[in-house]
Amino acid sequence: MDIIFYHPSFNAKKWQAGLEQRLPQARVREWTPGDRAPADYALVRQPPVAMLQGRTDLKGVFALGAGVDDILNQLREHPQMLAAGVPLFRLEDTGMGRQMQEYAVWHVLGWFRRFNDYQQQKSQALWQPLRNPGRDAFTIGILGAGVLGRSVAESLRYWGFPVRCWSRTPKTLPGVTSFHGEAQLSEFLSGTRVLINLLPNTPQTVGILNRGLLSQLQPEAYLINLARGAHLVEEDLLAALAAGEIKAAALDVFAQEPLAQDHPFWTHPAIAITPHNAAVTLPEEAMDYIADAIRQREAGDMPAGQVDLARGY
């Protein structure tokens, strides 16, 4: 079994050793330009078109990241890059769920306990206890009910918050109020105090976090964007903050990365910024999943995580 590997920043030798340890029958090599030797599987992040083009014998391509939008964008420009019938797989959590939980819980608890308001009072040397909102009035709404969305929902339910989710198609999550489809989006938004975006990045979801959507949330709502910068209309968030529709936001992803040094988000007191690291690929967990998925493929089964190329996730 031959596996080719390409990632612009990962240590290829570490992945080669880790995969060969998990799959003793495998020969793993880092792909370099001009390599047309046979391959059964490919592990990629932003792969050159020439790496995958014409490889009709591939049994699977694994995208090394939380999303697959980078390779799907390449496929829109170069549809011949991936041969027909070759399955594309995304990483199914592999430790990212817990990292997303940490990020979401930290911000939600901080806003609920009004720690950011206390920090503002500190700058004024003001000693003034503040009243917390009741949990029943602090409903968490999650856009996206995939693996990561379900993981974040579960973690917030533990803290006693009402949790709801919205997805394009019907989903059922234990203890979570579910909404789906365009017809139920407004109802979902109107009851939400903290909106967490974990939608896939598709042509249909680009710009979904716009003024029209943000204005439908409960007054003085909060926003967490953990998905992609393309989801957020940045000017609309600034306008919603100025109008008091949004009280604070935590952003991990941006339309342009790194964020420009003169971007107004840097100096806005109500916006928290992290450099697209809310959840990163954990090599050991990712290699465990990939090795298990390859064993399933070799046994004739289809592992979890296959991407529907038409839907984009």
UniProtKB/TrEMBL annotation:
Coiled coil: none annotated. Residues 106-278 form the D-isomer specific 2-hydroxyacid dehydrogenase NAD-binding domain. SUPFAM superfamilies: NAD(P)-binding Rossmann-fold domains (SSF51735). CDD domains: GDH_like_2 (cd12164). It comes from the Bacteria. Pfam families: 2-Hacid_dh_C (PF02826). Keywords: NAD, Oxidoreductase. This is Glyoxylate/hydroxypyruvate reductase GhrA. It comes from Erwinia aeris.
